Every structure is written in structure tokens, then in C-alpha cells.
Amino acid sequence: MTNAITRTLPGPLLGCIADDFTGATDLANMLVRGGMRTVQTIGVPDSDATLDADALVVALKSRTLPAAEAVAQSLAALEWLRAQGCQQIFFKYCSTFDSTDAGNIGPVTDALLDALAREPLPGAGSNANANANANALDNDFTIACPAFPENGRTLYRGHLFVGDALLNESGMENHPLTPMTDASLVRVLQRQTASQVGLVRYDVVARGASAVRERYAELRRDGVRMAIADALSDADLYTLGEACAGLPLITGGSGVALGLPENFRRAGLLAARADAADLPHIAGASAVLAGSASKATQAQVAQWRATRPAFRLDPLAAARGEPLVEQALAFAREHLNATPPQPVLIYATATPDEVKAVQRELGVSAAGHLVETTLAAIARGLRDMGVRKFVVAGGETSGAVVQALEIHTLRIGTQIDPGVPATATIGTQPLALALKSGNFGTTDFFAKALRQLDGVA
After folding, report:
1. How many C-beta neighbours within 10 Å does residue 318 have?
2. What angle do CA 301, 303, 308 make, to 5 degrees?
3. Which of 391, 298, 425, 372 is nearest to 42 (CA)?
4. Which of 68, 70, 81, 443 has a Cα at 20 to 30 A from 60?
5. Burial of 206 by CB count in 10 Å (0-12 exposed, 13-18 middle, 19+ buried)?
6. Where are any strands of DSSP class E within 150-273?
7. Is 32 helix (H, G, I), strand (E, B) or coil?
8. Which pTM was predicted?
9. What is the DSSP letter of 407?
């Protein structure tokens, strides 16, 4: 397989579709680290305005939607990215492969492959060195690789590990919305699609990009449309990225994007630059909002509460009609107006048993929606009282907050912790944000993130 990427049209090179908001910033962070100026949009833009970027990341909130809705949103994102002139598409999902047996990873991947087979991307396959027949085959094949070794997610013989534990023994089996009870991603993905799913094993990846491309060709000949790809290290991800240079569609976690910027450089399409992560300085007050129930976020909340002001949201109290939004904002106002001002944490983070108790009383969907809408209303109130720097924990929570704050585009800055960059909104009255997946970040992440948002320059 030869490199089928060309830049025959102005505009961005790589177009990305992410199934949640923190996952989108995670991916954007990886691309910025690789020297690509990256802009993240919140949902599919309704404007044709040109964005000055090497990569565009469309952040959807589709991970837990019914599969048909997730497919429709993803195809709309694909059409917008195609219109921007993107030469390659990346479908990004969580490094723990969060999904159900009904989707959405398999159905979305099938739909994107179908769309790209019907109408190739602008310029794809027009490189004089590209093999047109190979490119046609590539339109109906892709990989799936959620590995992110830097954060402890590795794939071995198609089985996903979180640290030293198999996925189904890592705590993800207790996820309230997408419990992951099977570590074999070949089995998980096969349950979501009628397409044949194969495997690119670690011993093939260890032999380099040429061996991986040969494995792709072998799988295609056998009728495989999607292949789980093993990765134990960043070196494996660079190998996979290089081998994917000719694929119109790549799917995975943010880790597999490590090798993509260099593909564009090898093709002479991406210049080396030192300013890809530059952000403006933003003045104003700071606050932390946490809705995730993950182990990492629980530890981060506990460390903050030990020395700093925090307000806990009780979903059952909210369901009873108690004025939690007003109480939380009054708490925040007291501390933000102190001398010196004190950033506050407002959180709904709870243990798995506490979450299940709330879900039993309110229902799974209603409980999650109540937390998200409450934190969204609090975010609006904080902005109105002068908060300009937000740290948000949890993918669903981040989606609710950015929508409540009417944020449409983000420029991506430097990394705070693996998978979590500083970001800044584009436009008038800018905000600085750190949007964190629930499972990401060190125990002191909240304080560390606020320090970085205070110092972005």
C-alpha cells in the first residue's frame, strides 16, 4: 500500500469525528503534540466559514445515543469535513472502547465506510505514486485500535487491558451507561456489525509498517472489513499510524493518531512549526465541575476536598425540587469573592454503589440527565458571575457544559496530563477550558489544570 494522501485543495488535512467532547480534546491534544494546528468544533458547524487549521475535530455527543442517531450525526460530520477539503477521516472513541452490543462503534464505522466507498474524499488517490486499485480496496477497510499506552490502555491478541487488568476487571464493568464486560474487542466489535472483524496481532506490528500493510491486504482478501490492531507501546502506535497513511478512514482512540502528522510531513503537506499549541491569555475567575463517577475522578475530588472548598450535588435532592443550582452558585459566590478569591469545586461524583442507588430510584437515563442539566445550569451561572476558566471532569458532563456555555469552537493548546490539553474558545468573550475524560489525570489534576489555565500565554 502506498501513501494515497494528497493536498490538492486548500484547507485542513485531517478531519476527525469524536463520539464525545473530552474524547475530542484528547485526540486534538495528540495532533497538536505532533505539530498540527488543531481546531475542535462543538457539534457539526452550521457555518461554511473557513477555519485556519491543519486538523479539524468535530465533537459529537453520540456515544450513548441510539445507533441510528449516532450514525446520522457522524455522517453529517463527515459531509462537513469533506466540504472543508479534508484528505483523511479519523473516527475517535474511548480508549476503553465504551459501547454496548448494539453499538455505536460498529454501526458508525460501517456507515462511514459505506459513505467513503460511494464518494471518495477530495484528492484521495490522486497522488501520482498512489495505486488506484489499492485505494479502492482501502475505501472498504479500516482498523480499530483504542490503545493508549501512556494512560495504561494496551491491546494484546485483541484483548484490551487497563493497566494490569483486563477491561472487564478494570472497573469499567460497572460503568453506569456502557458497562464493558468482555475484554476481547474482536468479539465486542463483531457483535455490533454484520461486517467481518479480524485481528492485526502484536507480532505483525512488531515487524513494522510494511508487515502491517501486508496484513491489511491479507485480511481484505479474506473479506475482513474491520480489524482490531494490537499495540503495547507508543512505538506500535507510530507503526500503525504509518501503515494507515493510505486509508481514507481510521478508527480508534487518540493514541493511534500519534503517527498521523508524520505521514503528512513525509508527503510534503505539513510544515514543521513551533506554534501549534499557542493560546491567548485569558483573565478571570476559575471553577471546577465534576460529574464523572470514575475511580480517577473520585480520587481527584477527594484530594481537592481535603484542602479546598467543594459543594456536593445530590441528584435525589434535585429530583425532589430542592434549589441545588441556587445553593451551589451562592456557595461559589462566597468563595470567589473572598480575599484572595478561592476557586471552587462543584461535583456530583459518587461511588458506584451510590450511583446505582440513585439509578434505581430515578432510572439510569433520568439520573444522568438530571446531573448533566444541573451542572450545565451551574456553569451558566458561574460564567455570569465572572468565571472565565473551567475545569470539567467527565465526557457527558463536558458535553453538557460546553453546550450550556454556547461554545462552538476551541483552539487546542499544550497538554496538562496525557489526553487532556488546555483549550481556549474562539471569538468574543473567550473562555479557557480543560475538558477531562473521567478516567484521565493524576490525583492533583484539578489544581494542576487551573495553574495551567491561569498561565496560558
Report:
1. 19
2. 85
3. 425
4. 443
5. middle
6. 153-156, 159-162, 165-166, 196-200, 224-229, 249-252
7. helix
8. 0.80
9. -
Is 31 within 8 Å of 24 (Cβ atoms)?
Answer: no
Residue with cell 451562592: 330
Identify the structural domains of the chain with CATH numbers, from first to last: 14-266 (3.40.50.10840), 285-455 (3.40.980.20)
DSSP string, 258-286: GGHHHHHHHTT-S---S-TT------SEE
- Spatial contact of 64 and 456, defined as CB atoms under 8 Å apart: no
Q: How far is CA 106 from the centre of its chain?
A: 17
Question: Using CA atoms, how far apart are residues 331 and 334, in angstroms rounded to an integer?
Answer: 5
Q: Which residues touch 446 (CB under 8 Å, ≥6 apart)? A: 288, 300, 303, 304, 345, 391, 393
pLDDT in tens, the chain (457 residues): 333 444 344 579 999 999 988 888 889 989 999 999 999 999 999 876 668 899 999 999 899 899 999 999 999 999 999 999 999 999 999 999 999 888 999 999 999 999 999 988 876 544 333 333 344 445 799 999 999 998 899 999 999 999 999 999 998 888 878 889 999 999 999 999 999 999 999 999 999 999 999 999 999 999 999 999 999 999 999 999 999 999 999 999 999 999 999 999 999 999 877 788 888 889 999 999 999 888 899 999 999 999 999 999 998 888 899 999 999 999 999 999 999 999 999 999 988 888 888 888 888 888 888 999 999 999 999 999 999 999 999 988 988 999 899 999 999 999 999 888 999 998 778 999 999 988 889 999 999 999 999 874 3
Do 239 and 212 form a contact (C-beta atoms < 8 A)?
Answer: yes
Q: Count how many residues are written for the chain.
A: 457
> Residue for cell digits 468479539?
187
Listed in sequence order, the DSSP H helices in 308-417 are 315-319, 324-336, 352-362, 364-384, 395-404
Sign of the C-alpha dihedral, residues 414, 307, 405, 358?
Answer: positive
Q: Give every CB contact of residue 368 below 8 A, 6+ residues apart in sequence.
A: 176, 177, 396
